[in-house]
Amino acid sequence: MKKNNPPSRVKVVCIGNRLRGDDAAGRYVADLLRKNGGIDVVEASSPLEILDVITSDTSHLIVVDAVENGGNPGKIHRLEIEDLISKNISYSSTHLLSLPETIKLLTALGEFGGKITLFGVEGADFGYGEKLSPKVEEACRKIANMIKIMFAWKTSSNLKTIRRKQASNRHNL
């Protein structure tokens, strides 16, 4: 697990395997987020590693992972923890313990009471290879931009800049 730890109460966990095609989506988002710095980004190979990342000062956990739900490659799923727990939402993963199961375990154990946002991107090819499919790569860029805006909203007092970024991001979706 690689960490980049500026002081922050917002943590972004990017899950994936760089050697399994579109499964590397989370890792690619981590690369994009690190370019600007200032965001606490953790790379993980499995959702279970989230349990090692949560600290007492974490108020918002953002998780990025590739999913296989039969949707169109590159489709972005954004779920809040309330959606995941209260509704029976299907969210498939390539991991032994799925991301929703890990999050449910985390909340059931009482280990984390903060806000949790999940970003899943539909993958096309999870076979061995180091290249993301073009639609997944494009979706990863959009997710990174959404996270930057979310992070800026939590840490910035300049609302005009944030609103401009939000408007720009809406046009790019």
Automatic annotation (TrEMBL):
Transmembrane segments: none annotated. GO terms for molecular function: aspartic-type endopeptidase activity; enzyme activator activity. Pfam families: HycI (PF01750). It comes from the Archaea. SUPFAM superfamilies: HybD-like. Keywords: Aspartyl protease, Hydrolase, Protease. GO terms for biological process: protein processing. Belongs to the peptidase A31 family. This is Hydrogenase maturation protease.
